[in-house]
Design brief:
- This protein is α+β, with helices and mostly antiparallel strands.
- It has one domain: 3-Layer(aba) Sandwich (Beta-lactamase), CATH 3.40.710.
- It is built from 10 helices and 12 strands.
- Helix 2 packs parallel to helix 6, helix 2 packs across helix 7 and helix 2 crosses helix 9.
- The longest helix is centred in the N-terminal third of the chain and has 15 residues.
Amino acid sequence: MGGTVDGLTARHAGVVVAAVAGASTEIQGSGSYGAGTLFEIGSVTKVFTALTLARLVVAGTAGLDEPLAALLPEGTRVPSRDGAEIKLRHLAGHTSGLPRLPKGMLLEALLRPSKPDPYAHCTAGFLLDGLSRTRLGATPGRRFRYSNLGAGLLGLALAHRSGTDYETLVTREICAPLGMADTGIADRQGRLVQGHDRRKRPVAPWHLADLAGAGGLRSTAADLVTFVRAQLAPEPGGLADAIRLSHEVEHRASPFSWVHLGWMGLRSHPKQGGGLLIWHNGRIGGFSSFVGFNPEKEVAVIILSDTHRSVDTPGLDLIRRLESLR
């Protein structure tokens, strides 16, 4: 694993890498970084949002096939297509037909790609007003179309149904039961490390306001090891039923790839070993992340970086090396 850390350090200001193989765990970081270093995890947040949905479904307070409109404030206009409504499972699996970004953000993103904190204005009012004017690009449930807007709306809707805010809901349903004390949105102790752009220049943290369910969480390698261990071996009486549900729901994107509730799934071509990978990545502001695991081999890899440069390839390479040793 040291080679992975060294290779990443050449292109990133700082990184932490965690490897899980059976009962063994190893965590290494560059410089002063380690298991407890706090990073923005970007879109890895979506897995937490989807698992929160699964938790509420198991508890009977939400339904996978419940319409999004039923969880939003009365009078909210939610688009439909071909007579099909957006359901909660569509939001968690990126099959809602919603665009990638909220209404009004695409042009701004194109004109000002380096704008600091571009989602900070995404309040519930802004998001729901834009939703009412949004046209779906596909019939809900028909095809995979990755959407930050969809994931953010899922987090917003679940929080509204639960009568609380997104961070409190995720803490209650996932982080507290698993003992993940360092995972959340607020950086109350000022521990978040400095983020950097691709040229290793410092950039300010991002705040996703009410779109937090799409990418607003911060976490550590130690907490994420706890999270993936729960995915590899759900313990009875804990989050087991919700985790199993999140893995069972599946929408095929291609012969070799699919999407679960939150997670992406991939099986390599038989000529490449046919290995299974359940994964998600994240890139936000000055950070990038990768979390992946193979339940068949009981291996997992987590990479957290304080630089806006992809860590997917090193993550994939390391997990394949771990698989070859099992």
